[in-house]
Amino acid sequence: MTIKAIGYAASGKHAKLKPMQLERQDPLPNEVQIAVLYCGVCHSDIHQCENDWGNTVYPCMPGHEVVGRVVNKGSLVTKHAIGDLVGVGCMIDSCHECAPCLAGDEQYCEGPNSWLATYNGPMKQTKTGENMYGRDNTFGGYSDQLVVREDFVLKIPAALPIEAAAPILCAGVTTYSPMKHWGVKAGSKVGVVGFGGLGDMSVKIARAMGAQVTVFTRDKDKVAEAHRLGAKSVVEGDDKAYAALEGHFDFIISTVPEKHEVDPFIPLLRHDGVFVAVGALAPMPGWNHMNVIMGRKTIAGSLIGSITETQEVLDFCAEHRIAPDIQLIPIQEINEAYKYVKSGDVRFRYVIDAASLAE
Ligand code: NDP
Ligand code: ZN
């Protein structure tokens, strides 16, 4: 038996997203069927639809910040009950056998196909063509139904606003994971470069961890927004402000979705400080390595977060009463929304109201 579903997908690199009928398989014994309520719009959705990473399989139906209700479940499911409010992030499976999977770092799965992405999965095609997941292309949360293995389904805490919980499943965990890994804590000095969807969550999570936060933005209009969240702000390119911050930061996270210069930020790190870029998709320009050596600084990257960390960040946001700032849209406005995300004009995350898929 199959489940009839509807979603929005792009048929090619320059194509607009349009309605697409699809069929999902009935849940296996360890899977749940989720009726989607809300789905966040991540900049990665745009990169993937536009084949910025060179690995897009069309049709491409994005959506990896999904909140919905369990409407059916397989016979062996124990973690979720029908009616539960649940979430799905960027991953829906992994090999469960490699060293990162066994260490609870499934997002760095080293299995033959790597982890199974919620859309456009599997992450890797093997040379021999064998596919451990048996799926050539996955379709994400810009749709009304999802079927996902129970281990990769998160619980949405009751204290979170339902529609604003969705972006925590990617924007939240992608910023929480490196902050946790590199030990951001009360009193840490944190810089956030690029104030969009991930930037908004970086500020809120770092502030809730007790850090002092400074936002680097190109947009003077966002200065007041940073202050509203209790952060200081620097308009990018303001040399005087940069000079005043030399040796200031323990941790800087860049969420800029394009390649960009790292050099201006290295002198701003203190001894043992870390600069982590989560948003660069093209090769980054080189940096003056002497500035990294002096002070034993780290230039790093980080990929989403594990399933454990995703549950942790949902619970953390509920406990600290923080949630992304969102703008709710019907799916019919998705192509326009993409334009505003690309121009940096969203405050700060579009979330699709899946009820509009029925229109
Ligand atoms: P947004 O578009 O919401 O935010 C990015 C922000 O970066 C913009 O608001 C803008 O902030 C700034 N910016 C945009 N273009 C430029 C530019 N050319 N130069 C300098 N600054 C720029 O994107 P998201 O927050 O959704 O995602 C950010 C990036 O992170 C994307 O590349 C996405 O694919 C990636 N990502 C990576 C993940 C990972 O696992 N590593 C997971 C999820 C996303 P301002 O106006 O303040 O300058
Ligand atoms: Zn994302």
Overall description:
- The protein is α/β, with parallel strands linked by helices.
- It folds into 2 domains: 2-170 and 326-358, Quinone Oxidoreductase, Chain A, domain 1 (Alpha-Beta Complex); 172-301, Rossmann fold.
- It is built from 10 helices and 17 strands.
- The chain has helices spanning 43-49, 99-102, 162-165, 171-181, 197-208, 223-228, 239-244, 289-293, 307-319, 334-342, and strands at residues 2-9, 18-25, 31-40, 66-73, 85-88, 91-93, 116-117, 145-149, 154-155, 189-193, 212-217, 232-235, 249-254, 269-277, 298-301, 326-330, 349-353.
- The strands form 4 sheets. Strands 3, 4, 5, 8, 9, 16 and 17 form a 7-stranded mixed beta sheet that branches. It has a 6-stranded parallel beta sheet with strand order 12-11-10-13-14-15. Strands 1-2 form a two-stranded antiparallel sheet.
- Helix 4 packs across helix 5.
- The protein starts with a strand and ends in a 6-residue tail after the last strand.
- The mean pLDDT is 96.
- Bound molecules: NADPH dihydro-nicotinamide-adenine-dinucleotide phosphate (NDP) and zinc ion (ZN).
- NADPH dihydro-nicotinamide-adenine-dinucleotide phosphate (NDP) is lined by residues 42-44, 47, 170, 174, 194-199, 217-219, 222, 255-258, 260, 278-279, 281, 302-304, 341, 344.
